[in-house]
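User: Quick one: structure for sequence A, then sequence B.

Assistant: Sequence A:
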Amino acid sequence: MAFARVLRGAGLDVPVGATLTFARALAAVGLDRSAGAYWAGRATLVRRPEDLPTYDRAFAAFWRERGTEGSGADAEPLAAVLALDAPTADAPGDDRLAATADDSPVVTVRWSPAEVLRQRDFATYTTAEFDEARRLMADLRLTGATRRSRRMRPSTATRGRPDLRRTVRRSLRAGGEPIDRVHRAAGEQHRRLVLLLDVSGSMEPYARAFVQFLHAAVVSRRRVDAFALGTRVTRITRELASRDPDAAIAAAARRVVDWSGGTRLGPCLREFNDTWGVRGTARGAVVVVLSDGWDRGDADTLAEQMRRLALVAHRIVWVNPLKASPGYAPLARGMAAALPYVDEFVEGHSLAALEELTTVIDR
């Protein structure tokens, strides 16, 4: 526990659970050799590669003062070969691997920046990580749920509604005899996808990533409508339709004048229902609301507008980035009022959560 406090003082994030795991690891390897204590702590207390130098300094200062023979850093040197999941021209090739071919032990490790970003919370992203996340989001594809269409299509089935026009046309090959009879069947088409993004001040840590997700959805499929909700409703489908993500996001930012302002989810949903939703945009559609549920308006208004939306929409999916927080409960007035009318309540704090969201939308 004292060593964990030293690491926290040095700037490392060491939760209580990791400290307990370290104690069990020490009980398993013992304190006879400092190398065992070093690797037990390194395996249980260090969460990021950039924290290794700090851990080595803290280990040397803490354990050497207590009479140990030295840190694990003084043990037999271990050669490591880094293999990138996406190799570049500067990545180590076979000639570098051959340079380590001696009698010393060699460990080959793989490193993937995408895997790290997939699980990291958007609120902790740096500018460079947002740029990388944008490239990863460009690979997301939303096919969307389907429904039976009123338009009839040619069918290979031997039963169903006869296709008289094609049957007569084929009968000309047999002297007018309808030997080859064909049929028609109702086709399928993708349901409309409606994305409602909360751009209020409380959503600022996640709004940038969600706008990139909206752009990926708009350019990846047809029948998508995107709206921004703040103190008013702003339709941003046309602005996000550009294939250039930088130009699309910049155009959407110029279009939304109440970015990072207040939250009026109830009145905004009423305006959306009256102007677009009930009139046809949300009818039979999959509606996705990306919001933390914090609302300064009347909760009864929000509940009433969610009820109206649920009557015309096929499904309502609510994406709340705060849902991933430990001990989270939907106690906010807005979230509690909307939840009875939500079909799917999912997380949205990371790339992995958005990938899961695409599977929810496509059901």
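Sequence B:
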Amino acid sequence: MHGCTWNYMSKLDQLPIEEQSVIEQFIDALWMESGLSQNTLAAYRNDLAGFGLWLQSVSNTLLNVNTSDIQGFLAAEYKAGKQGRSSARLVSTLKRFYQYQLRERQIDTDPSELVDMPKLDKPLPKIISEEQIDDLLNAPNASENLGVRDIAMLETLYATGLRVSELVNLQMSQLNLDPGVVRVIGKGGKERLVPLGEAAVDAISHYISVARNELLKGHGLSNAVFVTRRGGAMSRQAFWYLIKRYAAAVGIDDSLISPHTLRHAFASHLLNHGADLRVVQMLLGHSDISTTQIYTHIADQRLKTLYHAHHPRA
């Protein structure tokens, strides 16, 4: 019966009374300590009932298990199709349950201590095409001050791969338009120099000479590069709203839009055109290159798609 699968939902009553009591005492403690919702508590209850039922099949009980028992149960669940986040939640439930039992001195050692949390694959970010980027960059009205500002912001993001928070917090002292670089203060206060590119330099220069002072009229001075009609720096949320509005205006699918849309496009388009991964890592300000490597998977996917679309024997 080791490999059998169970319908664990609402199956607590299939367990012996003493096993039900062990689970319910833990659930009560969770509610008292953490104030979790009924749905979350039900998920804990069902996970533990499932483990209890599996233990019945191998003649064991919840408070008499070892690491091998837990690994055997997880293997059976994996074979039955429970993977990814469901598997991670299950491990988390068991760890919390046995940490509680150890704290309450119902067991002498924690059998879940050596059980590793499954590694979850990070979903690949959705990338908009270079053609869609062109449409997005051309969406603002270049005859209005706000449109001139928005073009400069969009061009800067796509040219540099800045985080939106880094963009909206950008100060005039961080710009050096002659050599075309921007000094970025990233996570943890780390600084990096990022080249702007000709299009971004032109857009920023035009914005500063034409629109910025007009937007600041009657509001005094501001050190922020990109300012609103009220004279202050733009918020991250406000800029996120602008991107969504411009994307909708040019027919870009809403599912492709996120606060990091242009950052993702910057990285993947660089790699598509042959940039070195280490260079992209430095430009993005990633401390670990494994964070940057997600974009190589996107580039590989694109190459496979192009191959299958165009090779006569694909």
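The first helix runs from residue 17 to 34. The first strand starts at residue 175 and ends at 176.

User: Thanks, that's what I needed.
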